[in-house]
Fold this sequence. Notes:
This protein is mainly alpha-helical. Helices cover 65% and strands 0% of the residues.
Amino acid sequence: MELIADIFLVASALGAGLYCFVLSRRLRRFTDLEKGVGGAVAVLSSQADELKKSLDSARATSDQASDELKSLTLRAESVAQQLELMMASMHDVIPEKDAVEETDTAGATETAYLPKDEVSTEPESTTELTVKPEPKRAMGLMFMRHTRKVGEGTA
Length: 155
């Protein structure tokens, strides 16, 4: 009986040795850097590093573009305010050509209603003061400024 037990013991030891040998070969192939999972992990690691570098570069570029856009926006707003002031100041100014035409047409309409014998063909005296017509005023709002909250327009 002891002999049979020893034979089973030697056979099981050989079976365990063979099983360990097969497992070691599989593990070696699994961790191989060219074909196995080790290679895939190495490739993924290098790709992650490259992706991080490109992401940092893209972030720096977008930050720079954002700063440039902010400065251009501020500049555009200041120019818009200056243009609004210029347009507002232009409402007070009447071009001389329009003023002369208005006085000519006003005189013509006054003489059109007078009888022909009362209409004088002589030029009026230059010593009389001429009444200047009132400047044209804009009808309604020309510009409407929208107010922003303090942190609304800036990022």
